[in-house]
Amino acid sequence: MTHPTGSTRIAQHRTYLMCKPTHFTVSYRINPWMEPANPTDTQLAVDQWQALYDTYLDLGHEVQLIDPVEGLPDMVYTANGGFVIDGVAYGPKFRFAERAGEEQPFITWFRENGLTVVEPRETNEGEGDFLLAGDIILAGTGFRSTGDSHREVAEVFDREVVSLTLTDPRFYHLDTAISVLDPVQGPGGVERANIAYLPTAFDAASRATLQRLFPEAIEVSDADGAVFGLNSASDGRNVFISPRATGFEAQLRERGYNPVLVDLSELLLGGGGIKCCTLEIRRSA
Ligand code: ARG
């Protein structure tokens, strides 16, 4: 199959942080997906999570683990536990009290694992709202992380930050509406990224910004967005996506990526998918 560059996509080695959903349940509601009255199946959540973990290892990636804490059912969504670039971990400060207990365990894990921790002043939910896209950071606001946290993250990492505003409560974190597929070398050696996104999740100004910065982006349909198709991880070749995002799967194949289907339907009851369960640990420049 051919795609615009005509070349073969190369997988890059990744290190991810995950947390087994031993204590997973839905006992409160902080996003529209969560319905505490409905039952959850913790064993099914663990089995689905294990399949994602095994898939990462099978494809040659490294997965590190943080111990789950009883009473913190959302800790499985490690993407919200921080944002890590070049060995520096910017810690989380959660919007809702229900998740505040996760802050110290993540910060402690970063310290014990040799990362330099920057404790945040501003409310932010880590890689849920901050995505490294080549050299720049895409930063989401509207529901969780604040605009002040965007300024803070720009200082911490000394990088250009592009603020984007989310408007649909179903897509309350940036990683539910944008997927970074791989970095690409642009003119002058500047690294840009290939991304996929859900246009209807953003306000008009943010849509215009995305069109300007990423004219080649894959624009994903509402149907694929609604099954959390964009909540995916990528190593530059293999893109880990929900099996229900069939249109997105076809778009990825057309561009020469290899979609790898992993079903996390039980974890979607908490409002999270593949990317939410995956925090990238970038140790060196
Ligand atoms: N129940 C969690 C919350 O609402 C889900 C977090 C999903 N994480 C993500 N990176 N989108 O905070």
TrEMBL record:
Gene3D superfamilies: L-arginine/glycine Amidinotransferase, Chain A (3.75.10.10). GO terms for biological process: L-arginine deiminase pathway. The keyword Flavoprotein does not apply. The keyword Nucleus does not apply. Keywords: Hydrolase, Transferase. GO terms for molecular function: arginine deiminase activity; transferase activity. It comes from the Bacteria. PANTHER family: ARGININE DEIMINASE. This is Amidinotransferase. It comes from Microbacterium ginsengisoli.
